[in-house]
C-alpha cells in the first residue's frame, strides 16, 4: 500500500476530551473518528486492526468447537418479553419503532435470539453439545460513554452461546471457552487474568471476567501475582478434559471488586503475591443454567425420551474494546507499539528521497519482494520530510521500519528498525528483506 494513495488522517494533537492514552493515540494515529458520543467510524488503519483482532477471536472460537453464524443487529421486542428482559433491561437498551409501529431494539446481547434459533431446530440431546457464536455490533446506551472504543455505545462483540443437556456438560463447554479465552488474549500479546465475577441473581461460581491490568482500567481487582505471569495453555490440550487447566488457575485468588473478600485474599495469598490493581474487562464468560431455556421453552428429548430444558452459558469478548486495551498495554511516548499479530501493517517502508531514481527503484524492489512473501507493507512514498515520516511510523506503531535513502544506498545499506525496542540495524537490502520474510 502506497501512503500517497492511502487514507491516513493523523493528528498532531489529540482532542482535549480524550483522557486516556489509548483514546488519544487512536485519534492521533487515524484509527477512528467519533461521529456521536460513543459511536465511531473506523478509518482504514483502525479497520485493519479490528479485522485482525476479530480473526484471532474467530480462530480460537472455532478451535474450541464453536460454530459461527450471524444474527441481525435489530431484534423484536416481543422476543425479549418472553424472557422478561424487555422491561428489566432499562435505559441501556436502544428501543426503536418501525413504520408499522412494531417495537424493535438494537441488540445489546443475544441470549433471547439464539435461544429462539436453537428451539426452532434442535430437538434431541444427540445434537448436543452445541456452541454457536457470532461477531456483531451491539448497542448499549451507556450512561457515560468514554475512553473511546473502550466504553462505546456501538461496539463490536464476539458472543458465543453453549447448549448442553445438563450442568456437567455445560461445565465442559465453559472450560473450553475459558481455555479459548486464555489463548485468544495471549495471541494478541495481552496478559488477561481470569477473575471470579458476580453471577447476579443466578448464583453459583461459574462466571469469570478476563481482565487486562492497566492503571486506566475501570475495574478494581485483587489477584495472586502468579496468575499474571502464567503462560496460556496453547492449542495442544485435551479439549475434552480441561478441568485441571481451569483448576490450576481458579485455585489462585483473583476477584473483581464486587466479589472481593479481603480475608479470603489474605488467607489464600502470600503477602508478596497480593496484587491490587486496576483492570480492563476484555471478556466475560457465564454459566446460567436454564435462565432462558425455561421461560422460552428450549427443550430437547433426553436419552430417556423425556423433554428437558437445556443448560446454557454465554461468552463475550469485547472485540473493539481490545484495541484500546492493547494500546494501553503497548505504547511509548512516540506512539503505539502493535504486537505483530494485530499490527495493521507488518512493515513500514520509508523512502527518504522518492524523487531519486535509485532510491525509488530499491524501494519498489523491497516492496514487491515483501508483498510476494505475504507481508503487508505500508510504503511511505510521500514527499514529507524524513523526520515527519519517522514520527508517523512511530505513531502508528508498525512493528518494523525499513528505511531506504541515497546515502545508505551509496554504501550498499538500508536501515531496519524494530519499533518495540528501537534497535536499528544497517543491512544490505537482501539481508533486510530476508529478515522480514
Ligand atoms: P462493563 O462492565 O465494562 O460495562 P459488561 O460487563 O457490561 O462490561 P458484558 O455484558 O459482560 O459487558 O459484555 C461482554 C464484553 O463486551 C465485555 O467483557 C466487554 O469486553 C465488552 N463490552 C461491554 N460493554 C462495552 C462497551 N460499552 N464498549 C465496548 N465494549 C464493551
Ligand atoms: Mg456494562
Ligand atoms: Mg462488567
Ligand atoms: Mg461483563
Overview of this structure, please?
Catalyzes the attachment of proline to tRNA(Pro) in a two-step reaction: proline is first activated by ATP to form Pro-AMP and then transferred to the acceptor end of tRNA(Pro). It is a single chain. The protein is α+β, with helices and mostly antiparallel strands and 437 residues long. Helix content is 32%, strand content 28%. The protein contains 14 helices and 23 strands. The chain has helices at residues 21-28, 44-63, 77-83, 85-88, 111-121, 167-187, 225-229, 243-250, 262-268, 319-329, 357-372, 386-396, 406-410, 429-436; strands at 32-36, 39-42, 67-68, 74-76, 94-97, 103-106, 130-139, 154-164, 192-196, 207-213, 219-224, 254-256, 274-289, 299-301, 307-309, 311-318, 331-332, 335-336, 347-351, 377-380, 400-404, 414-418, 424-427. Strands 3, 7, 8, 9, 10, 11, 12, 13 and 16 form a 9-stranded mixed sheet that branches. Strands 20-19-21-22-23 form a 5-stranded mixed sheet, sandwiched between helices. A hairpin with a 2-residue loop joins β17 and β18 (335-336). α1 (21-28) packs across α10 and α2 packs across α10. Residues 140, 142, 151-152, 155, 157, 281-284, 316, 318, 320-321 line the site of adenosine-5'-triphosphate.
Bound molecules: adenosine-5'-triphosphate, magnesium ion
What's the number of helices? 14
Helix content class = 25-40%
Strand tally is: 23
Strand content: 25-35%
- Major sheet description: 9 strands, mixed
Unreliably modeled segments: none
**Net shape:** globular
What is the straight-line distance between the termini? 17 Å
The mean pLDDT is 97
Radius of gyration: 24 Å
Alpha-beta classification: alpha+beta
